[in-house]
Amino acid sequence: MSETFKYGADLAADIEARWQDHWDKHGTYDAPNPTGDLADDPAMVARPKKFVMDMFPYPSGAGLHVGHPLGYIATDVHARYLRMTGHNVLHTLGFDAFGLPAEQYAVQTGTHPRISTEANIGTMKAQLRRLGLGHDQRRSVTTIDPEYYRWTQWIFLQIFNSWYDTEAGRARPIGELAAQFEDGRRPTPDGRPWADLTDTERADILGGHRLAYASHAPVNWCPGLGTVLANEEVTSEGRSERGNFPVFKARLRQWNMRITAYADRLLDDLDGLDWPEAIKLQQRNWIGRSEGARADFTISAPDGGPAARSERISVFTTRQDTLFGATYMVLAPEHPLLDSVIPDTWPEGTREAWTGGHGSPAEAVATYRRQAGAKSDVERQADAKVKTGVFTGVYAVNPVSAERIPVFVADYVLMGYGTGAIMAVPAHDHRDFAFARAFELPMRCVVEPTDGRGTDPATWDDAFVAGEARLVNSTGPDISLDGLGVVDAKARVSTWLEEHGIGEGTVNFRLRDWLFSRQRYWGEPFPIVYDEDGIAHPLPESMLPLELPEVEDYSPRTFDSDDAHTEPETPLSRNEEWVNVTLDLGDGRGPRRFRRETNTMPNWAGSCWYELRYLDPHNSERLVDPGIEQYWMGPREGMPHGGVDLYVGGAEHAVLHLLYARFWSKVLYDLGHVSSAEPFHKLYNQGMIQAYVYRDSRGFPVPAGETEERDGVWYHQGEPVRRELGKMGKSLKNAVTPDEICTEYGADTLRLYEMAMGPLDVSRPWDTRAVVGQYRLLQRLWRNIVDEETGETTVTGGEPDEATLRALHKAIDGVRHDMAGLRFNTAIAKITELNNHVTKAREVPRAVAEPMVLLIAPLAPHIAEELWRRLGHQESVVHQEFPVADPAYVVDETVTCVVQVKGKVKARLEVSPSIADAELEALALAEPGVRAALGGAGIRKVIVRAPKLVNIVPA
After folding, report:
1. Domain residues of the chain, as ranges?
2. Which CATH superfamily is domain 29-151+623-685 in?
């Protein structure tokens, strides 16, 4: 028999290549944009839109392994189904191409990051094309294209030129704030008229409000990488996510995004999103909203007399009811007051245990700050057995009791939460209790214990922490809380603090402003220049894009990974010709000398807004046409904030990318550039394809393809190895590339296997040997329609029998529901069951063959196109109508009802699906097997679950 028309690897390769060329040539997946008023375009109205997106891939030099395209195949299947159900589908894919790997490769080889990145993109595009993904190629973007990052820079300028108006609850242009200062509607910080301020003073004031601002602040400094990192880029062990280098706290000048201004909206708007609850919870926890109060403690003079300075220590607490129990204070090592209030000598009466053995407060504090800087936040927050800290030599005054209390510095307080200072209430906080015991500090019970331990903390083993109890020992000169419950006491203290101008009830967030600069080359340049006074100026739009210059050395200066006392030196700073420029900014002041910003944006910048560029990728006049954005992403019923209809990607981006993108979207919405306040309405997290890792006696991975099993033991080159389930990757020597599977079986088989492995949101192990199961499904489908000897179709014009009609329409009904719900594994099971039924028939009617091809088309598009053409159709299967089930054939004529007595099956009845409870009970009780099981006993209860179960309980 000739092999010419037998479905095998060679034929699959030929079919797939031809149809991929056909799709490209004819623009099969091009999604039209509205060209005007939708009311004037009935064709657009007739086809409702769906915007389906994958998370940006990074073009790795290693290429794809079979785990990477899981989500891409899934969105492709779903998008194809949506097209076949009458939707105008936007589905495309770009590349998030700035990033550290390309820069590190450039450092090692001298190859420009653009060259290696574009080569990697070319490899990845070829791999993805081979999978038959139905992307609108006209819309694909890459973040390293200057015409793309021109708009990234433009968005940065929108954020830089904005401030958050808390009264209006939205961002507004910074010029409106300047106008308020200028005309006196808003007073300057020191009360001087705006006209009397210098340019630098004005810039500083506006910088304190801008949504993008530069400041000296505690940052995560990674000497081993030569750059600072966002909190989210530091592991729980206090090391860099990339490279695993130590990370230290340092005060450096960096760009920040004032994402904290949007904390409430970022929380509240989660309720309107169709996201997994686990992801919403992660965002809520990261934002970390807590209600409490701000209280100001005045600094006392060392001798106990009037304060020598005007500084106050502000604290945020969620337990303002315990203010009378504050017996000392603690500042974070990074607290700025430590630079200005430390006295030269120890106050009289300072305990030896408080000084750390140092001769002066300045020496003690400086030494302790250096030690704390070498620890990660995680290490500092760990419950260490030995509490560390030193007395600052400073005392503060408790505002409610007027008591003078010592101020310590300790690393268990972080600058990143609240104000970086705490009032320590050791009787009612576990960490404060441990610290007070270690340093022999007093404790005062102010919340009466409910567990019978009494009110003397000296007899306690730990702090008493309760959510509701009665206040005691809480009476001061002009406020008393004694006898109040915790809730009432909190409200009373908040009111008292506000009345006295030393605090107020307030809300605090765990969320910190987003650190938005990196000391790297391969990133978007900031469109900012500095004048001779150091004032930052935005470049005019006409100067965008500001392109990356050529440099001789791509690496930031790196240091000994343990050397915390270093500062960044960026690659761009070494290009003097680019850094120092003469520009006319169009502000009426003519050409002037400026210095460019030499940091670059983090690799998250380009992925904060790419969904918008997909909509209108070639618009050179604006970010996106408003009508086009409104059509694809505007709010509508069920989508109150608008956004992408379906966004698929890994759960590991729950905080970083998703939170940042939401922030950018809200700023653009506030400024009127978009109609969608949220970027992604529905989020779906796909699982991970895992693979077995084989390790030798040393624990090193060995090539998975070179192992063999004998009697339950795995061997490599004759030596036993250990098998464990883990990630798939080149370093673990267990990667399988999609190219390998496509060559051996075809892309359609790979697509089917990845979708059939299990539920899309669950991780599952890869097994190359199991791929053949889906290969055989396609071979059987092919044989059911095509003669393998002649290549002619074998379908008939006859009518299907009733059993086949029922099998067909049940499959159609089930597959439609599964496709809509992203349950592709069960959809494939239903198609397989139908195909097996048809395989047993002597002949296949066209009325069955064509719906079968349409059912599998979203999953295996190449073979579906080929079969559809061989069945005589000239139009692509991509835009054919998906089959609709006939309800008459979906409902079973009969179902099997199980009859139990005492929980054991005694009979099975074939009954109508619509049978009534009373009729089913009568039939069950009439069954001879049931009567025999009862043996004449009475019946206590009959439980009927029509039509499938009757359970009889004897008396």
Report:
1. 1-28+745-891, 29-151+623-685, 154-283+515-596, 289-509, 892-954
2. HUPs (3.40.50.620)
CA distance 62 to 598: 31
Measured in whole angstroms, the distance separating CA 474 from the mean position of its chain's CA atoms is: 45
Contact indicator for 329, 421 with CB cutoff of 8 Å: yes
Q: What is the mean pLDDT of the chain?
A: 92
Q: Which two tokens stand for residue 715?
A: 């061997």
Count other C-beta atoms under 10 Å from residue 690's C-beta: 16
Q: What is the DSSP letter of 854?
A: H
791 Cβ neighbours under 8 A, 6+ residues apart: 4, 5, 870
Q: Is the pLDDT of residue 302 over 70?
A: no
Residue for token pair 């009791």? 401
Integer Cα distance of 534 and 458 in angstroms = 56
- pLDDT class for 307, splitting at 50, 70, 90? very low
Work out the burial of residue 274: count CB atoms within 10 Å of its CB; fewer than 13 is exposed, 13-18 middle, 19 or more buried.
Answer: middle
* Dist. CA 215–CA 222, nearest whole Å: 18
Residue 648 has φ and ψ, to the nearest 5°, of: -120, 135
Give the pLDDT confidence score for residue 320 in this predicted structure: 96
Q: pLDDT value at position 35?
A: 83
Contact by Cβ (8 Å): 222, 228:
yes
Q: How many residues are there in the chain?
A: 955
User: Does residue 855 sit in helix, strand or coil?
Assistant: helix
Residue range 886-929, pLDDT digits in tens: 999 998 778 999 999 999 999 999 998 888 898 999 999 989 99
Give the pair of three-digit tokens for residue 343. 């006295």
* Residues 89/93/96/102 CA torsion (nearest 10 deg): 180
Look up tokens 């990488």; give the residue: 225
As assigned by CATH, the class of the 892-954 domain is alpha beta
Query: What is the CA angle 227-218-662, rounded to 5?
Result: 75
Query: CA-CA distance, 920 to 408, in Å (whole number)?
Result: 79
- Contacts (Cβ under 8 Å, ≥6 apart) of 197: 188, 205
- Of the candidates 179, 182, 157, 177, the residue with the CA atom closest to the CA atom of residue 167: 177
Whole-angstrom Cα distance, residue 57 to residue 680? 17
| CATH number of the structural domain 289-509 | 3.90.740.10
Say yes or no to pLDDT of 39 above 70: no
Q: What is the model's pLDDT at position 390?
A: 96
CA distance 560 to 572: 21
CA pair distance 939, 930, nearest whole angstrom = 12
Where are the strands (E) in 92-166, listed by range?
Answer: 162-165
CA atoms within 13 A on the CB side of 874: 0
CA 242 vs. chain centroid, Å, equals 18
Note the pLDDT of residue 557.
82
Lookup: tokens for 577? 């010709």
- pLDDT the model gives residue 308: 45
CA distance 269 to 272: 6
Q: Write phi, then psi, for 828 (nearest 5 degrees).
A: -65, -40
What's the angle, vertex CA 783, arms to CA 778 and CA 786, rounded to 5?
115
Alpha-carbon distances of 735 from 14, 62, 357, 650, 728, rounded to whole Å: 26, 10, 57, 19, 5
**β-strands 895-901, 949-954: how paired?**
parallel
The tens digit of pLDDT for each residue in 98-122 reads 987 888 888 888 899 999 999 999 9
Q: Kindly list the distances between the CA atom of residue 643 and the CA atoms of 609, 626, 673, 681, 822, in Å, as whole numbers in the listed order.
A: 11, 14, 14, 5, 19
- Distance of alpha carbon 462 from the chain centroid: 39
End-to-end CA distance of the chain: 70
CATH superfamily name and code, 1-28+745-891 = Isoleucyl-tRNA Synthetase; Domain 1 (1.10.730.10)
Beta strand residue intervals within 640-718, DSSP E: 646-649, 683-685, 689-695, 701-702, 707-710, 713-716
**Which CA distances in Å does 555 have to 237, 447, 515, 527?**
25, 57, 20, 21
Of 153 and 308, the one with more pLDDT: 153
